[in-house]
Predict the 3D structure of the following.
Amino acid sequence: MNMKIKIKVNGVDYSHEVEPRLLLVHYLRDTLRLTGTHIGCDTSGCGACTIHVNGKAVKSCTLLAVQADGSNITTIEGLAKNGTLHPLQEGFHQEHGLQCGFCTPGMIMTAADLLSTNPKPTEEEIRIALEGNLCRCTGYHNIVKSIQYAAKKM
Amino acid sequence: MSTTTGYIGKPVKRVEDKRFTTGKGNYTDDIILPGMTHGAFVRSPYANAKIKRIDTTRAKSMPGVVAIFTGADVAALNGVPCGWQVNFKNGATMKEPKHPLLVADRTKHVGDPVAFIVADTREQAVDALEAVIVDYEKLPNVVNASEAVKSGAPLVHDDVPNNICFDWELGNPKAEVDEAMSKAAHVTKLDFVNQRLAPNAIEPRSYIGSYDSTSGRYTLYTSTQNPHLIRLLMCAFVLGLPEHKVRVVGPDVGGGFGSKIYHYTEEALVTWCSQKIGRPIKWTSERAESFLLDAHGRDHITKAEMGFDKEGKILALRVKTIANLGAYLSTFSTCVPTYLHGTLLQGLYTTPKINVDVTGVFTHTTVVDAYRGAGRPEATYLLERLIDLGALEMGVDPAELRFKNFIPPFDGVKQPGYQTQVALQYDSGNYEGVLKKGLEIFGYKDFRKQQKEAAKNGKLLGVGFSTYIEACGIAPSAVVGSLGARAGLYEVGEVRVQPTGKVSVFTGSHSHGQGHETTFAQVVADKLGIAMEDVEIVHGDSDSIAFGMGTYGSRSIAVGGSAIMKSIDKIIDKGKKIAAHKLEASSEDIEFAGGKFTIKGTDKSMGFGEVALNAYVPHVYPKDLEPGLDFVSFYDPANFTYPFGCHIAMVEVDKETGKVDLKRFVAVDDVGTVINPMIVEGQIHGGVAQGVGQALFEGVEFDEDGQVSNGSYMDYCMPRADNMPMFETASQVTPCPHNPLGVKGAGEAGCIGATPAVVNAVIDALWSGGKKVKDIRMPLTPERVWNALQG
């Protein structure tokens, strides 16, 4: 039996009837067509699906859409404000923090959460914060630098 | 105003970044076609099992199920082909069993597909999977290649005796190598396993097949590194479709590392089945499926011996390898342990006698093919381990031992290329240069003191070297053809100048993270003297691009970039004729620089845009010249390119736990001329992390039954941010003498050099504490290192 949910995503209110088993990540990608949030694994191990639920970084493959009923969600598509890129989006560009781009939205959302609670993280704190996000392209070197760039800017 | 010249060599920020940082990338799984259905596979839970019965009756009646295909439905179709023929030593052709799209009779590895379910939604397809009844008879299986060749071992294919696909040899005759080895004052011996790895691009493979009945055209969206190659293999070898009626698109692709080169059965199935059901079909791999189905890398069992004279000069190298190919032959599986491995065993050294013997073996496991580096990491690993271990055993300095054995510098122009004992001719090199630079950056002299001090205080510090070479830019078609390749290995580059002087470039290379939209635009803008914003790079669509070969083997800039350069030369040449006519001069008197065609020695000139406009509005125009300014060029290189470098790792080993802490990593790489140093460094970083991953963390483990026992990110240890130090990179430039840009390629270097450097460093650390260990099996987990410390 489908269930009704109301969710705010990137400032827009949505209301949908969804299957109880529908994962939040599939709701975002398939129902709302916000495909910037990616799926890289089946075990909440890669972090490519990281979004913000009520301001906190969450792997959207670990939540059912119905669990997110009533919550306020930000995805990578909602991070830039009024056409101005978020300092992290700028930082990843400036410091070559991405190659194939697949892990990038999750990396940025995780880093945004880190910087909101720890605005001046050390290199080690950044690396530990990224433990739940896998990147196969960059060796993390430039991701760390991108986050340092953003921390300086913010 | 942006600069319009001098883009080459600049760390230009990437033009592709914005779509990825804002969530606007367009990967295959992001695409939804009208009426699209979803596929899911029933996969064998057994490594070797007879399929006695398949019953799809109940599954077919499940909600949303559109169709179910089994092995019987595709029995008339061919399997996916192998693209490289390796012959037995006696000249017989390698064993090449069919790799069917769906298995009808006997499964050959866990995950082999038995049925393909197509339903309206992904969830409905997955629901129906569970309703398919397959009656299996489990049979004995074999997963280890050295077990597989023993008599009485279970056979993967009934018609392949002893599971041997081929045996193969390269280099000097065995007797000559044996004789040289017998004269050695010291022989370093190493028996080791170069373990199996899962490539793990973070984007899982994803395909959408569709068919338009009005035009009779098929379209396949695929997460591939080489769309044209997939189209050719699928049309001509598997499905028998007319190639001109098939469009293959590789949109944004989330990493490849080799694993997305190959033509996979699922690509052919979604294409073929979409015509049968009259609707598009999407299939996206789950990560668990990736671990079972995406071609793995490495998996060599090797015995290697290196003989030194009493001065430390290498006299001989003898290598015997058993390479696990998995259950079937993946597209380039056969060339990896042979022509991409044996041919690199000269390394950077003057070793006069080399013999390599390789046996390719089938097992009941996932297929093995090229993974970042492909054969060259395996060659480098054994050479660099032998050199460092030899130095420890002989009590000499590992850096000094290398200087003693390096091939002297040669530029390939004034000095000829270096002919190796194993078929290749190196293009240009300055091997001592990169080691000298590496030692300097690392502060090597001080390190040995530091190491001794640390040892006194009970701390184990170690340094490990790796001075590697690789063969990239694969390669001259005639050469690879003579070695068994069933494809040409050129590249295509079309440069289309629009009437307004804006430029569209169509390349057969494919970017899945490499940043071609930036690097290639830098080359074109630099050479044509125009702004980068005026250049657009198009890749990945077989409908808009002439037949190209795609991206692997670090070939994009060396081969793809050279093809573009050929077209640029033709444009400049034609531009001179157009300008000469307009300026009433002879075309020999026109020179092109900074975006202007000028009569030599005068200030009379025409801008690039003006010439472009004249080419398309040819009112005042040479009589014998065609209108237009658009050239397609194919570039077939004269040789491979040979990047090289020096990697130095420093580790600290925790005596109590065996944990290895990678403290520093210095990489000095010589990849020839560098177009964009920022992107090259990024490639090195990523490669190094993968190389470190092999040394310390990664390895696919099969249990006795052929189950992958670590097939998820909960179990397979991927390198994480907190496992890595900041890398210290530097470059040296020895241009490639045989391509127009002097480039060699940088995609795989990091992954080739890093692994032995890290393992050598751990072994060095153990020796510094008096534990004279020759080898620890990779990955060097705390448990394995701890056990070595107790031994």
About this structure: Residues 556-583 of chain B form the longest helix (28 residues). Residues 39 and 118 of chain B are 4 Å apart (CA to CA). The first strand of chain B starts at residue 37 and ends at 43. The mean pLDDT of chain B is 97.
